[in-house]
Amino acid sequence: MSGPEQQDEVRTPVGLWLVGARGSVATTTFTGAIGVAGGLAPPTGLVTMQPPLTGVGLPPLESFALGGHDVVETPLAVRAARLVDGGALPVGLPEAVGDRLSEVEAELRPGITWQEARTDPRRAVDRVAGDLAGFRERHGLEHLVVVNLASTEPPAASHPSHLDPEALNRALSGRLAVLPPSSLYALAAIEAGCAFVDFTPSAGARLPALVQLAERNSLPLAGSDGKTGETLIKTTLAPAFRSRALRVRSWSATNILGGADGEALSDPERARSKLQSKGRCLEEILGYAVESPVAIENVRDLGEWKTAWDHIAFEGFLGVRMRMQFTWEGCDSALAAPLVLDLARLMTLALERGEGGELAELAFFFKDPVGTDVHSLERQYARLCEWAAQEIAV
Amino acid sequence: MSGPEQQDEVRTPVGLWLVGARGSVATTTFTGAIGVAGGLAPPTGLVTMQPPLTGVGLPPLESFALGGHDVVETPLAVRAARLVDGGALPVGLPEAVGDRLSEVEAELRPGITWQEARTDPRRAVDRVAGDLAGFRERHGLEHLVVVNLASTEPPAASHPSHLDPEALNRALSGRLAVLPPSSLYALAAIEAGCAFVDFTPSAGARLPALVQLAERNSLPLAGSDGKTGETLIKTTLAPAFRSRALRVRSWSATNILGGADGEALSDPERARSKLQSKGRCLEEILGYAVESPVAIENVRDLGEWKTAWDHIAFEGFLGVRMRMQFTWEGCDSALAAPLVLDLARLMTLALERGEGGELAELAFFFKDPVGTDVHSLERQYARLCEWAAQEIAV
Amino acid sequence: MSGPEQQDEVRTPVGLWLVGARGSVATTTFTGAIGVAGGLAPPTGLVTMQPPLTGVGLPPLESFALGGHDVVETPLAVRAARLVDGGALPVGLPEAVGDRLSEVEAELRPGITWQEARTDPRRAVDRVAGDLAGFRERHGLEHLVVVNLASTEPPAASHPSHLDPEALNRALSGRLAVLPPSSLYALAAIEAGCAFVDFTPSAGARLPALVQLAERNSLPLAGSDGKTGETLIKTTLAPAFRSRALRVRSWSATNILGGADGEALSDPERARSKLQSKGRCLEEILGYAVESPVAIENVRDLGEWKTAWDHIAFEGFLGVRMRMQFTWEGCDSALAAPLVLDLARLMTLALERGEGGELAELAFFFKDPVGTDVHSLERQYARLCEWAAQEIAV
Amino acid sequence: MSGPEQQDEVRTPVGLWLVGARGSVATTTFTGAIGVAGGLAPPTGLVTMQPPLTGVGLPPLESFALGGHDVVETPLAVRAARLVDGGALPVGLPEAVGDRLSEVEAELRPGITWQEARTDPRRAVDRVAGDLAGFRERHGLEHLVVVNLASTEPPAASHPSHLDPEALNRALSGRLAVLPPSSLYALAAIEAGCAFVDFTPSAGARLPALVQLAERNSLPLAGSDGKTGETLIKTTLAPAFRSRALRVRSWSATNILGGADGEALSDPERARSKLQSKGRCLEEILGYAVESPVAIENVRDLGEWKTAWDHIAFEGFLGVRMRMQFTWEGCDSALAAPLVLDLARLMTLALERGEGGELAELAFFFKDPVGTDVHSLERQYARLCEWAAQEIAV
Fold this sequence. Notes:
Four copies of one chain form a homotetramer.
Chain A: E1 14-19, H1 24-37, E2 64-70, H2 76-85, H3 93-96, H4 98-105, E3 108-110, H5 114-119, H6 121-139, E4 143-148, H7 165-173, H8 181-191, E5 195-198, H9 208-216, E6 220-223, H10 230-243, E7 247-257, H11 259-265, H12 268-279, H13 281-286, E8 294-298, E9 305-315, E10 321-331, H14 332-353, E11 357-358, H15 377-389
Parallel strand pairs in A: 1-2, 1-4, 2-3, 4-5, 5-6, 6-11, 7-8
Antiparallel strand pairs in A: 7-9, 9-10
């Protein structure tokens, strides 16, 4: 993808590869990347396209080649049309970027099924790593960022081989079903020399063996679980209760949502992954344990839209009890997609700088950030901006 | 007030003097100060009684002598009983601290009426300054902090004498009605060597002549308009929209409230002061102008309770429109009173350090902070903690 | 308009004439009437197209000729396109009904301006009555219903001539400015033998002289102020508080809205008409006076959308205080338009039956119903269904 | 209980017996009955103490002797004190009615445990029936009403003996565990000649065998599951969507609550009883199936308070999608207790009239009414008033 831009400086070709490439978030990411690069839409929602991050010299959207894996085959154009119907993409945009969307379509490859992950995991990794290598070669990419956007998996069972790269390798070669697909993708990304981002609460690269591999190869990892809605607001509000010394007594949250996400989370096992990921922030910010139930309900009617209602009971001076409530009505794919593009740009920067292992500095984007227990959105933002602005140590 | 404390270190006696001393906030401040100092209630809501500010060496609540001015004569005990009825003070507390509350009652003096402000302003200032001096002497106070909690005044008409201390002095001596009561109190506080805090949107010390006087005398000023409810949340949430590059299209706010505050603000002139004060924060945080109407309705039934409803329409990636709403149901006096005590402690620190003029570092407490246009609550908190922790320059 | 229907029974031609014919509600009414008649959209929102009212034998939508007055000249097609942009009309529908919309466009005539109402009211009435007569003739209409949808007027000043048809006639002939445009339309409608409905809170036909005229001529009147949002819910909920003996202490309402309606109501005079109309229902339903402020804020960003937030403080057994809150986010034109079509059908029935004067039985549709003080939605619905079902007295 | 009333007419002594007599609702019912009868509190929340039901000649609260069963032994005074702490009873009231509350305390008897229900159900029934008979005798009661307020039971397994009184009798005598405690109480009430009301979703008298017994003995039954909160509002609002032909697409409900009720419903089995009971109303009112998930979360912090949040997505004219949301913040015991008293009065009337079997006319009080599928609150209220007013057929 080389947009109709004004700048004629030679750009290093870089790439973004999405796992779950035919889902709502990925389809919006592809359509929006092309649209914004082509000047058809403003960069609203793109954190890296407003000061201070505009000053950091991140690779422009136009310099990204786009591709991905998925286990389903619905064409991107069909997915995009459905998103238009549901109000998640603007009328006319998919048509306007149709040619380039077809080019992306040609770069989509079959993903790893659970069946494959269980029966021949080594072959799955090799196949995916091969797809990534082919993509790099076809486009002459200097750097490639892989982002996992596939449906949330149930929590992965732990296994001794998760602790050690060599043991993991032996297990996979021995056809042991020790990794879920998300972790196979992460391994393949590392083996193919790519950065890996987990935008879901699945295991992905969050296993010691994979982190060690990434460190050895100076490849950055980021994750996990994109912070796009209720948790975004939670981690924005909770610091105010903390700084004002107002004691939160209970924080009850409800999420109603449809789409593939709603469907996946109506499975209690998968919901467990999400609930664990959502529950970690309050105690860290407030400094004490709080009764904080989180309910997730699948409401098919809502489609890509997600409404969260939170009820916060708190105590002020002399024990007077008060309440706050909020509802957040967001379009999940429209909230997540620009962050995926931000992460592509920032992880490319990390690749350029040779930063390997878990990148705590990108916590701003995640519900359950790797390498840190800072959850306050403002503190995370400050840290991100500081990191991005720093000179590369030579 | 010298509470039944364990610490037997000698404490420097300091004082807190409240203008509007018989109002809800002041009554709660007095009752709560005695109650918390005496171990009858936890320090919930007191910003300075949690880390990191506990480490700064602020004067303990027990070391504060308490007094004040008011234009009405309702006994504190009667006001406290009404607050208990309305759920704004805990059952039993006013009785438990009754003896000490009587001591405070004995330190209350008649306030400045509008009539007096118009006919003999100089005498009003002298009288108030005399009351402050007498209070200092009776209690041997090293430092005294005056906080204005009186009803919001209409916006003050500007006058040339506001620009220069000497001109102001001449105008007052010439019996010109150039200052509202809040500013007369501020002048008296400065003349009596006290710190002055404006917790309301009234003019108070926000006139160049008064700021110059405070600077000359190395007396600190803080204000204005305590940030206790809707604006607290606004300045907490708006930075998240900014950092996530989500474009706020409109932010509509409604406040329903009763009590003396509701009554005062049902006067359109007085409401104007408040609305100006509330409207300044969004544009500063977001970086662009936003349609942001604010409605205030007097609902007598609500008493001290205040409910705010905010409706935020915003735009995400590719122009997708989303919404957030919140309601905040707070007890105004319970939210404000601990901040008054925090300000008393912090302004005493400023007096000890000899810091004169407007203290921008205390912006955390105010809707319309002096000396700064930083409105983000988190940024204000960081600045406050940094300031409080710094060593006194010798 | 004679849709592509299956029924080949001969239909009596009837007509619907809208004042404010180029506004959002009228444009939606025209577009929707054609769309539903043509089978392009389901009859959602049409009260008369579901049981029990389907059994009453009302004239089908297809039998209505459509026309109207307006003081502006924006073409219907342009207005419809804007409504599509704002999400108030479905993509594609205006184009699909374009031919028939052009026919309606050809039946629109210049409306009465305030200028004309003040300088030559008699001529304005004659002109409008002439337009109505011409429309009837061109289409061979047996019955014609006029509905006022024009912007809310300020409350009309009362005048002795309002009490008596003859005095009113003399005043108008004498060029006295005693009637606002809405009442001139009502008079013209009566003089032209039409039914008249006031869907706004303007004076319209609510003057004794006009009511007498309508009675004399056996012409039905209905109104006023369509109940489409916050009041709809108020009159649904309040009966539950009444029947459960829960004492409402305060009912605070806020409406934020954009569009022409928002603009008009940002004028305090016009808002007064609306607020009077909205305030009448609670006391009637509950049986006692309640503190019930209503705020209306113009938020241009919201366009045709209107969000109401109501906060209800009530008391239960033994004085325990509780709260209910609701938000209603509706598209005003989409809520009002089907009711206009229902009223057209029902008023045609009244014309067929020869019922003259104010029709209290249609209170279901109005915030401030004529001829009754029943506001409970359910009771109004029961009464409507009963009335519609009754045999015509011979 | 024979209050200090003015009327000196001879009153027929009647009785109210509560199962779960030491719970929050029962404690509030006892305290409130005595308080209202004694003029210490207004009759807010009592449906039968406002017109038109005041005109029906129901037995006054003063004429009711009070007693009950419970499996726990916490004294009423202790429970009442806790309710005062939680804001569910007014400060001072339990003390003011202390003497009479002690009299009630003396009339409480040990309830049926699950253990007893499983091992010797016949003896449990006989014991309870004996307690009821003793109570009647001691107070010379003409009529006695039993109301079940005990914790919600899991759904009861069906058994052939539920269909026939004689088979049921044999099963119980044979020590078969075929009935849950709620049904044993119902059977005992019938055997003792009492009316029985199920205010919970437990099985209670809703078994054909028990209904037949009640019919044979001309004893009235009412239930089940008191409609006090979210469902109250649901059945108030849904008729408006129906009458206005607005198509509800999804109605998502969340309830957060603490107390014994929250605790009980955090058991998925018991929650199942409640959810079944709550889900029945929407389809009946709207006339079509609607996606309507209901979540219940136990939040201990909320105590007796219950907050419901409902999100209603609906469609108007031409398919335009809109939303309504509400939150209901109620004190469960304060909402339920007056209805228990209303039911005591109304069931006494039914006993006087000799009406046996399920009383559909009392549907107004219940989420899942016996003998009818009318759920609209207004229609239920109309039916109740009509029934109460009717003359007794001779």
